[in-house]
Amino acid sequence: MSLGEFDIIRRYFSDIGFAAEIDSAAATSNAQQHAIELGVGDDCAILQLPPGERLALSIDTLVADVHFPATATAFDIATRALATAVSDLAAMGARPLAFTLALTLPQPDELWLLDFSDGLRESAARYRVALIGGDTTRGPLTITVQVHGSLRTGGLRRSGAQVGDGVFVSGTLGDAAAALAVLQGRLSAQPEQAHFLHERFYRPTARVVLGEALLGVATAAIDISDGLLADLGHVLRASAVGAECVLSRLPMSEALLAVTTREQAQQWAQSGGDDYELCFTAPLSAREHLRELAEMLDVPITEIGLITEGDALLCRDASGAIVTPAQSGYQHFSGAAH
Ligand code: ADP
Ligand code: MG
Asked: How far is the CA of 46 from the centre of ligand 1 (A)?
């Protein structure tokens, strides 16, 4: 980008998420601080991990009007972009260290950049992750975030689910789908619920602490970006197992149940995407431990099903009857493919 590319980088992207703006009491900020040998400004950033730790990395691209409404504020776009990227680290049980940012902008707009970097700064502090490099180009608004995290084990892979394991989810499901309906004017909501849903969409909680706590407990995990049934399907395929789920058990927020019918809410909970909660499997013997973990971390954990032999995903209603979910994938913002 010709107009002040280096000014843009220096002004808006050179000091995001570094320890000075993170409270020093946090153990994770120490890990992060020690890992980053070199940040923004050279040809490469350099990370150094303690011996025995693995580097986990994941990259995600958000395109205007596909992954977020083009009318979204720069702040909201930034917080969502970083939280959704960090969510992949959480789903692996990795501890966030750093991220890189490839930013494509139609034109350099100082106000937009200021708002965007403020959002990134807030999200970077929340997840204790530092911006260590990137690329800045001109073109249709596109944001690519690559996250880097450390893992002290082989991580929570999709392939480890065992027959007889329970299926669990964190938090509540369906909020982001409802938020999208409100944003698109398909659903009306009272200000309080509209605010709650807006936050769930633009500032989803990447379950980093839970993910790390599940190392050695969960047998498989995934973050719910495409919808519970679609994402659980990925785990089942990778693990070569089936599952039975009880749809009436899916955890839903009060706000979701207040803005729509129970039927629609459950439909969004099972198939809406973008909630970025974790879906994981664990031996039923871990139930008590998971209950304690949920309490300690203040994150709801709900048992929703059981891993079975075969490859089918069977859904049951509250009475135990088998139901066929109408739609198992996630509808994108504009209906475009992922
Ligand atoms: P190069 O030509 O080596 O790719 P650039 O001119 O693209 O270098 O970038 C200069 C420095 O600024 C590099 O350290 C790069 O990582 C960093 N950088 C560029 N764009 C961004 C951005 N949007 N956010 C953070 N760092 C960036
Ligand atoms: Mg470059």
From this structure: 13
